[in-house]
């Protein structure tokens, strides 16, 4: 697990490459900001006498059946995200982008927008599960993505129900069709237009280093990115306090290492070392 010599070697080797340095993040990066995990007990949602599990609400079928319930839940979660602030892990990743420039790419599963609020640019960020601050038409697969209107409250109480008037405000402003949260639901698949599927895989093929932080490999595209990057010879660093598919993969690879640590504890030093190797190179 903790192998400082191997970690130092992998970070030092990064200065010789010209390929991507990819940071792949999950919910563990935002844990120190106070955002509850999607699958944890805080994710449950009660409407009257009905208690929903997140995987029941985070589906297109649930939205088509009960759009008011789904929107109310997402607007509450959006309020939780707005109350949170970026932590040291987010800021470290932002410094890394500024130092590396075009070599840097962030692939994030987080929809909370904290990477952008810490300063990461949208040009070098792939939000592969969407962003809770945006919406798009519910009547088509693709289509334009728009910010949720400023008229919609960001301080949303947990028992607050979206109104018919607010649902009208949540229409797609371009197509005028019924709007939906711009997130990837459990009964949907990745695509390029909304979730940068092909772009993520192409970047993985060009990676010199894949730094995977705060994710347990529960979704499909990150697993493919990790497998492809490893197959193409990228160095592989997994940062997570608990074992996972990614930490096991890192332990098996000749050029892999697992750091058993939280994102906010480990990332500042890792990112600074990468920037030092860049300057030394």
How far apart, in Å, are the first and last alpha carbons?
28 Å
Strand tally is 11
The tally of helices reads: 12
Broad shape: elongated
Please characterize this protein's 3D structure.
There is one protein chain. The chain has 2 domains: 1-34 and 85-129 and 192-281, 3-Layer(aba) Sandwich (Rossmann fold), CATH 3.40.50; 36-83 and 133-183, SIR2/SIRT2 'Small Domain', CATH 3.30.1600.10. The mean pLDDT is 91. The chain contains 12 helices and 11 strands. The strands form 3 sheets. The protein has a 6-stranded parallel sheet with strand order 5-4-1-9-10-11, with helices on both faces. Strands 7-6-8 form a 3-stranded antiparallel sheet, covered by helices on one side. Helix 1 (4-13) packs across helix 12 (263-280), helix 5 (88-100) runs parallel beside helix 12 (263-280) and helix 9 (197-205) packs parallel to helix 10 (220-231). It is α/β, with parallel strands linked by helices and 281 residues long. 42% of the residues are buried. The radius of gyration is 19 Å and the shape is elongated. The longest helix is centred in the last third of the chain and has 18 residues, at 263-280.
């Amino acid at each position: 697990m903790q192998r400082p010599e191997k970690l130092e070697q992998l970070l030092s080797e990064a200065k010789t490459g010209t390929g991507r340095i990819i940071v792949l993040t999950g919910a563990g990066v935002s844990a120190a900001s106070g955002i509850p995990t999607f699958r944890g007990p805080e994710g449950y949602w009660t409407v009257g006498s009905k208690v929903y599990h997140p995987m029941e609400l985070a589906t297109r079928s649930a939205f088509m059946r009960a759009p008011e319930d789904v929107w109310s839940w997402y607007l509450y979660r959006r309020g939780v995200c707005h109350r949170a602030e970026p932590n040291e892990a987010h800021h470290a990743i932002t410094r890394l982008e500024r130092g590396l420039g075009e070599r840097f790419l962030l692939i994030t599963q987080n929809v909370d927008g904290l990477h952008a609020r810490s300063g990461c640019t949208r040009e070098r960020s792939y939000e592969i599960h969407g962003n809770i601050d945006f919406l798009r038409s519910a009547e088509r697969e693709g289509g334009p993505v728009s910010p949720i209107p400023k008229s919609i409250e960001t301080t949303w109480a947990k028992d607050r129900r979206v109104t018919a008037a607010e649902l009208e405000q949540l229409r797609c402003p371009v197509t005028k069709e019924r709007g939906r949260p711009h997130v990837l639901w459990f009964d949907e698949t990745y695509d390029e237009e909304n979730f940068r599927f092909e772009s993520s895989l192409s970047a993985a093929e060009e990676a010199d280093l894949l730094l995977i932080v705060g994710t347990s490999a529960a979704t499909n595209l990150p697993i493919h990115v990790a497998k492809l990057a490893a197959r193409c010879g990228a160095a592989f660093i997994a940062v997570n306090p608990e074992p996972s598919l990614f930490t096991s993969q890192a332990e098996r690879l000749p050029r892999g290492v697992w750091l058993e640590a939280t994102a906010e504890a480990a990332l500042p030093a890792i990112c600074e070392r990468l920037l030092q190797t860049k300057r030394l190179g």
